[in-house]
Design goal:
Blueprint: H1 8-15, H2 18-39, H3 44-71, H4 80-98, H5 106-137, H6 142-172, H7 176-195, H8 197-201, H9 216-224, H10 227-243, H11 246-257, H12 266-289, H13 291-309, H14 317-353, H15 358-386, H16 397-422, H17 435-438
Helix pairs in contact: 1-6, 2-6, 2-7, 2-11, 3-5, 3-15, 4-5, 4-7, 5-15, 6-7, 6-12, 6-14, 10-14, 10-15, 10-16, 11-16, 12-13, 12-14, 13-14, 13-16, 14-15, 15-16
């Protein structure tokens, strides 16, 4: 028996505000490397390692937060206390990133930026993991979940576009460092107000019989013992490793490859708008053709588009825009179906264990995505250094090769490998757990 359709009010209250956290995340993810190298004059390899370490911590803290939220018992529910608690930390970490004191330099500047990154990404987990978990438990109907995560994906993608708008303003300002600082405070406050809408307006379903797991390590063992989960997570890791540096390289593509820094906002606009417009189409195709076949087709389409981007040169702005439209449309599919399929895998786990572990499964998903992204970001600095990148000057063909590898070659390879891996994905049919297993009381502390 399935839940009734999710109301339009819940779609809006749950899915729409998420663009605010996407704006904060991708402003950091897409602009921080360039800001740190060109404005703070930190070495690219140092910045990428620092960023990669923060992202890895982000991934490690995720299972702790996910398991904690699964096993929390309060009159406000399992997820809402975390959503509220994340908001002040999210503001503080974001503002700290873009306002390092001018007097800081050397080791102290690196320390300041490192602390800011760790605070920001911890706060991001505190909000985004319970938010994903909440979406997975709002309905037991697979197609309803797909529709709900489609709204979330559309809003999240719009947040990426807005982030590039902010980056455009900062990059084109007379003093980019001051401009980034001026944008940080109002952006973080507005984001906090918007993100408060979800815990204020969305109530968690009352399913008192659902346990949240026996602890983080047993829950993670359950994740890894499910073959469908392993394959889904493996695909997400490979994709993330492929595209992890694409956003970061966007400003470099605009300034050094196209030699048109004024179009830095148009590149993600083509990518994001096409992704938003394509989401309803992917939802309909997935319902008619199945989620696995639909996602594989989208991955192959994305691989072809990024492969074409490898050929782009200085005078090829229209070609790059066209290829980004195709790549963005294809990427819109994975953002929706990945989360919807994860909810289906959570149902499979519940039938086997008698537990609802949306938080841990969401954390596992984000862990592999962050791990792949961290790998790409950690590689980006050394690749740029080895190929001879020098800030604020015309690049050599060798240094442009490094940018092409990160912006086109790695994504193409990632999608091809992901499509090959996903061919064997299937949800096992399991018997329901014994009633006694579901009656064990769960602990309430992490």
């Amino acid at each position: 028996m399935h839940d009734a359709a999710i109301s339009p009010r819940t779609h809006v209250a749950y899915g729409v505000p998420i663009f605010a956290v996407a704006y904060l995340l991708f402003f950091v993810q897409f602009y921080f490397l360039k800001f740190a190298t060109d404005e703070l004059l930190l070495a690219p390899a140092l910045v990428s390692v620092l960023f990669g370490a923060a992202k890895l911590w982000d991934g490690v803290s995720g299972p702790l937060i996910g398991s904690w939220s699964d096993r929390t018992r309060s009159r406000f529910g399992r997820r809402r206390p975390f959503l509220f608690a994340a908001l002040p930390l999210l503001c503080f970490g974001f503002v700290m990133l873009w306002t390092p004191p001018a007097a800081l330099g050397g080791t102290w500047l690196v320390l300041w930026m490192g602390v800011a990154l760790f605070v920001f990404f911890t706060a991001f987990d505190l909000y985004s993991l319970p938010h994903m978990a909440l979406g997975a438990e709002l309905s037991t109907d697979s197609h309803e979940r797909t529709r709900l995560f489609a709204v979330r994906q559309i809003s999240f993608t719009i947040g990426i576009l807005l982030a590039f708008g902010g980056i455009q303003i900062a990059m084109n300002a007379a003093e980019p460092r001051s401009a980034a600082a001026m944008l940080a405070v109002p952006a973080s406050l507005v984001a906090a107000l918007l993100l408060a809408v979800t815990p204020l307006a969305v109530r968690e379903p009352l399913r008192a019989d659902r346990r949240g797991g026996r602890g983080m390590l047993p829950a993670l063992r359950d994740v890894l013992s499910t073959s469908a989960a392993r394959r889904l997570l493996g695909v997400q890791f490979v994709e993330a490793a492929g595209v992890g540096a694409v956003g970061t390289m966007g400003p470099y593509i605009a300034e050094y490859l196209l030699r048109r820094p004024e179009v830095v906002g148009l590149l993600p606009a083509a990518y994001v708008i096409s992704g938003v417009l394509a989401v309803p189409l992917w939802v309909r195709i997935a319902r008619a053709r199945g989620k696995r076949a639909t996602w594989i087709a989208a991955m192959l389409l994305a691989a072809g588009a990024f492969g074409g981007i490898w050929t782009v040169g200085e005078g090829d702005f229209p070609l790059l825009m066209a290829l980004l439209v195709v790549a963005g449309a294809a990427m819109g599919c994975g953002g929706v179906l990945g989360n919807a399929l994860l909810a289906d895998v959570i149902d499979l786990d519940e039938r086997r264990t008698g537990e609802r572990k949306e938080g841990v499964y969401s954390a596992a998903m984000m862990l592999v995505v962050k791990g792949g992204t961290a790998l790409a970001l950690a590689a980006s600095g050394p690749i740029m250094t080895v190929t001879g990148f020098a800030p604020n000057v015309a690049q050599t063909e060798t240094s442009l090769l490094g940018i092409r590898i990160l912006f086109a070659g790695m994504p193409c390879a990632g999608f091809l490998i992901g499509a090959w891996m996903f061919r064997g994905f299937a949800l096992e049919v399991l018997p329901a757990p014994a009633p006694a297993a579901a009656a064990v009381k769960a602990p309430s502390t992490p």
